[in-house]
Design goal:
This protein is of the alpha+beta class and about 350 residues long. It has 9 helices and 19 strands. The structure holds manganese (II) ion.
């Protein structure tokens, strides 16, 4: 099924006769439009892209299969949409409830001559096609190269944000359009905060450093985490924690396969951490789906009962975070196939100790 077919088939199971897309990710997915501005309207007959003059030419070139409509001061988007509503006798229009603000919803509700119904079309993006997987692979390769670079670059005495900025600069120099999200760099006891943004703390010799970062290629994200030691090895407990997280991550990856439930992968990894006595220090999900957004559904959570399908891309990222001591997380991006997991990020996962000089 192509993207429009997937969208229409999802609509057929809802009460909406057409779908009005407003989010960056779904407008990009359906029409190559990555912008806060503009609308993509999918009806059973036609795909419409409604943009102003800033986007018109580019959108027209990228959407030979669509009717591209120009909104202006005289012919506003609501007039254009109402014309379509009338032409195609549409009574109900779906909207993205998780994207449209309350204010914009109230305006649309007032202006459009159809009832508005919230419809979640994000599931159409869950299974990736070959082109999408190709972009994610490239994004993973760039992240891997950046990790190799940063292991060589980092020294005790540097600030976390200095390391994070170097990482982003390297990725951009090597083909990334941007970073997937704000880079997480947590050293020493800050490692106990799973999502600590890179700060001004200086990295000390013997600190464990957790870097969680990714590159975007063609709007598709990679998302990788590694935890390494700077200059000398960490204490015994943190070294042991690194081993436990490695083993949990391996078990989680092995449970990624078409037909498996997401919660079963979470369980496989979580059991390792619980059996080692650190269950209370692993407070987040095992992972999430990955695509145009860094965090997509379905999640690899303890409660997600749905099953993985070939072509989905997920992260596997267990961690242990001990307040006052530090933390370890290891994350890979994994393609779900019928035959099992295909790990797309390939950076080494053993506990690396960087050079002193
Ligand atoms: Mn992640």
């Amino acid at each position: 099924m192509d993207r429009l077919e997937k969208c229409r088939s999802l609509l057929a199971g809802s009460n909406a006769q057409a779908m009005l897309c407003t989010s960056y990710h779904n407008k990009f997915y359906l029409a190559g439009l990555y912008s806060s501005s503009g609308y993509v309207l999918i009806t059973q007959k036609q795909k419409y892209v409604i943009v102003d003059s800033r986007y018109y030419e580019e959108v027209r070139q990228n959407n030979r299969d669509a009717q591209v409509l120009l909104m202006t001061g005289e012919k506003t988007y609501d007039m254009l949409i109402n014309d379509i509503i009338e032409d195609e006798s549409i009574r109900t229009v779906g909207f993205e409830g998780d994207d449209l603000s309350y204010d914009r919803y109230m305006i649309l509700k007032d202006k459009l001559n159809a009832s508005l119904i919230p419809v979640d079309i994000n599931p159409i993006r869950a299974v990736k096609d070959a082109g999408e997987i190709g972009s994610i692979r490239e994004a993973c390769d760039i992240a891997d190269a950046a990790y190799t670079h940063i292991l060589d670059f980092v020294r005790a005495g540097m600030r976390e944000d200095e390391v994070a900025n170097e990482l982003v600069y390297f990725m951009k120099k090597n083909g990334a359009m941007k970073e997937s999200f704000d880079t997480i760099a947590a050293s020493g006891i800050r490692g106990a905060m799973p999502h600590a943004k890179a700060g001004t703390k200086r990295i000390e010799e013997g600190d464990l450093v957790t870097l969680d970062f990714g590159a975007k290629v063609g709007q598709y994200c990679s998302d990788i985490t590694r935890t390494f030691a700077v200059g000398k090895g960490p204490g015994r407990e943190l070294a042991k924690i690194h081993e436990i997280v490695s083993e949990a991550q391996q078990k989680g990856i092995e449970a990624v396969r078409a037909g498996m439930r997401f919660c079963d992968a979470d369980r496989a990894a979580r059991s390792v951490i619980e059996d080692a006595g650190y269950g209370e220090y692993f407070g987040h999900n095992l992972g999430h789906s990955l695509g145009i957004n860094d965090h997509e559904d379905p999640r690899l959570s303890p409660t997600e009962q749905s099953r993985m399908e070939a072509g989905m891309v997920v992260t596997v990222e267990p961690g242990i975070y001990v307040p006052g001591l530090g933390g370890v997380r290891i994350e890979d991006d994994v393609l779900v196939t019928e035959d099992g997991p295909q790990v797309l990020t390939r950076s080494p996962k053993q506990l690396i100790i960087t050079d002193k000089e």
